[in-house]
C-alpha cells in the first residue's frame, strides 16, 4: 500500500495530521506493507525567505483579522497539537518561503530519509523557531536525519530537486488538492485535513480491502 501525504513544513495542521495518521498506522495490522511518500505543497509560494513580522501579524494580514484574533487561532491549534504530544511555540515562529525546505526534503527522500527529515524540519519550525527560509539554518538540521551539512548546503545553494517540488505541486493541482494536509491512499482513497485517528484507520482498512 502506498500513502502519499501532501503537506507544508509550516502548516500546523500538517504536523497534527502526521501524528494522528501515525497513531492509526501503528495499530494497522498490515502496517509493514505501507509505504509513506511525502509530497510538497507550498501554502504561500510567493512569500519572502523570511517575514519581518511575527506569525500573528502575518496571519492577521493574510486573513483580514486582528492580531488578537490571529493569536487566538494560534492558541487553539497549539492546544490541539499538545493533545497529540507536540509542543508548539508559535509566538516565536519564523515563517517564510518553504521552497528550499521542500527541496531538502526531496534530497532526503532520495536517500530513504524522507520521513525523518520531514519530522525534524517540522519540529524545528514549530518548537525551535527555525528560520524556515534560511538555507544555512536548514542545512544545519541535515546531520540529524542522516545527511551532512555540507551536502545539504550544496543542494540548497543550487537548484537541485526544484523539478521534483514542482511536479508534486502540479500533481496536487491535477488531483484538485487546494489545502493540506491531504492524504492519498493507493491513488484511490483521499483524506483532507488532520482528521481524527479513527478516520485514518477506516481509510487504511478501506484501501486494504480493495
Q: In summary, what is this structure?
A:
Helix 1 packs across helix 9 and helix 2 crosses helix 3.
* Strand residue content: 5-15%
Structural class call reads alpha+beta
Helix-strand sequence: EHEHHHHHHHEEH
Uncertain parts? none
Characterize the overall form: globular
Helix content: 40-55%
- CATH topology value: Glutaredoxin
- At the fourth level of CATH, the homologous superfamily is Glutaredoxin
Q: What is the strand tally?
A: 4
Strand order of the largest sheet: 2-1-3-4
Instruction: Write down the domain tally.
Output: 1
* Mean pLDDT metric: 97
First-residue to last-residue Cα separation: 10 Å
Keywords for this structure?
210 residues; 4-stranded mixed beta sheet; alpha+beta; 52% helix; Glutaredoxin; globular; single chain
Provide a descriptive summary of the structure in words.
This protein is an alpha+beta fold and 210 residues long. The protein has one domain: 3-Layer(aba) Sandwich (Glutaredoxin). It is 52% helix and 10% strand. A four-stranded mixed sheet has the order 2-1-3-4, sandwiched between helices. Strand 3 and strand 4 (189-192) form a beta hairpin. The longest helix has 17 residues, at 67-83. It is globular. The termini are close together. The model has no long low-confidence stretch (mean pLDDT 97).
Topology summary:
Layout: E1 2-7, H1 12-26, E2 35-40, H2 55-63, H3 67-83, H4 99-109, H5 114-128, H6 135-141, H7 149-156, H8 162-175, E3 182-185, E4 189-192, H9 197-209
Parallel strand pairs: 1-2
Antiparallel strand pairs: 1-3, 3-4
Helix pairs in contact: 1-3, 1-9, 2-3, 4-5, 6-7
